[in-house]
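Sanity check record (used in CI):
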Amino acid sequence: MDAMGSPWRRDEEAAISDLDGEQNERYHDDTDDDEAEAASPDAPLRGSARPSTDFDGLHLGRSKIPAWRDRLADRIPPWLRSAWSATVRWVQGPDPPRIFTITPVFPKIQHAPLALLDRYAPRRIQRFWLLIALYACWLLAFSLILRASSYSASIPGYGSPARLSCASRYWSEGSGCGLNGNRCRPFSNATMAFRCPADCHKQLILNPHAVGDQEVVYKPLVVGGPTDRLTGLEDEILSNAIYRGDSFICASAVHAGFISDSQGGCGVLTLTGEQPLFTASTNYGIESIGFPSYFPHTFGFLLGTRAQCHDLRWPALAISAFFTATLSIFTTDPAVFFWSTFIILFFTTALATDPPNLYDYPSLLSLAIGRFLPACFCAWVTYRYTAHRTLHNLTAQFEKTLLWLGAAWVGALNNETFDRIPIQRLTAHDIQAQPGAVPALIAVVFIIFSIALAQAWSFRLEGRMPRYLALYSLFVGGILLMLALPGLNLRIHHYILALLLLPGTSFQNRTSMLYQGLLVGMFVNGIARWGFDSLLQTPGELFQGAQQGTLLPEIGVVSASMSAITFGLGALPRWDARANVLFDGISVLVNDVERFKGYGGSDGTGWDQGEGSGNLTWTWKRHRISRHSAPDRGEELHADTGDSDADAEILTNLPEYFRFAYMAGSQVADFTRAGTWTAEGEWVDMKPGPSL
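Expected output for LCCL domain-containing protein:
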């Protein structure tokens, strides 16, 4: 019996052993297999005390009730279920997924810096001190450049120059300088030593600016220039060039040939008082606007005061680019590379290449540090969930330097690169108004859409498409929700655009390295230059300085002669249903200077201040210009008020330009466009629509 049973027992034991081996092999500790096993209907229940009821072929003890999902599925057409299942399988990607990695081109060349480091600094502590030395050298060189750029020598007799931005000017928009311009005094007998940055020809005025009956927009605001007219200042100001006080100072200095646009410069300007007849010209790449009347606040540039100071943004950029490139080719550590690059990018942008408009460097440094700390949090999230995947185990040193680091510098230099695209603000008003904005926007959207499709395909190949579809669905849903909020406007700044697009670059391939570096640079530029501007803004914040769409005064001319003109201003108060405001006053600009401000009487019959004849009229007398044959420097040209002056030369009557706006208390609404009182005493009505 034993002899006969022994072979059977051995066969039985071998079969059991084989079965145990198959079971052990099937349930080995592997994540993918565990997931597949959990998805299998025959998988054993783990961590449960209840037996499995997934298979109950005899239906013992209970009847099977269809679940609501089964009942819902029965109502869906089979072709639709099949299409949905195919879509889900396609979105989930291939099995196994394809994980992107970069194999260096010419590996011996790209690995040469690493081999050099292994040879001369093989120990970790040696590399640590080399990194500290690199940081110290960059900080020293960058600080010396900043010091030379910010603390220029004093101009003899005028002191240290004030740091101006490209948009600095004396005169404010509309009625901002107050009645007769008193808030913007002095008008003459004053000088200012100034310092201008480079590339001020790129500074454009973004909202329409009125110059008499003209409107200037999307170009540098420069009114006036060199003139052949006798001013009495020919021997004191450069090129006899006189500019209106609302002109950009630095662009005017370039236009006059006083400083270089490519390097900036220092010098002294002088206020030249009231001047007439501003000539238009194009000099040094900047076109100025003419103005055939007078303006109370003007300036020119003093001969012999130009100082040897330059905008050193390009040397500062060269220093930072050199040190970041050196670090890039000698390190494979993603954290060292990312954070070192981020910090150097940020402070180079904030202090040198595109600093905010502040007048001294201590304030500039304080603002930069204040913006840096919250920017670090955004950078940590970007590194943790996006950049680390791209940079981890990457040994293509020169490709990383060229694609990621090079693109990051391009993005950080947004003021020199993408600012050339004719889209200054991503608002419907600006896109419609700015020349070339619509085709540029179409091209940008097409490029972004094409890149998004390519990146989505990469997500599918890596098997990560479902989770990123969910993420971007949340992004889109949030944007749609913010668009629906009443009383607020959505404004996607370029730092927000960078944060939205960065998650889509979390691959280790060459195109993703390029896009990721570019977006990190754009984020750095947006925060370092402009700060964390809100994603949602009120119309007043979004269109600050722009036309408001308010009710415009209906103006009539009661009488006009060579010496005086009387206007009928209508009745006050006036209710503006669109703006939901009651207007109780009116402001009048003459030659873009506020010359009258009045409020309707409580009975609606006259001015509160007693001016006019009680029927809401206003009279203006001709403002004639006289000048002495040889005035002292800065002597203010004065108006002829009718008094005789045998020593004065009376100029021919000049045209004058009138604009009118309602007021609600101290708040001024939109001004009308300019009507012209000609030198011959005739009135030319204003065109319909508002102005600034």
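The longest helix spans residues 361-391. If this sentence no longer matches the regenerated tokens, the check is flagged for review.
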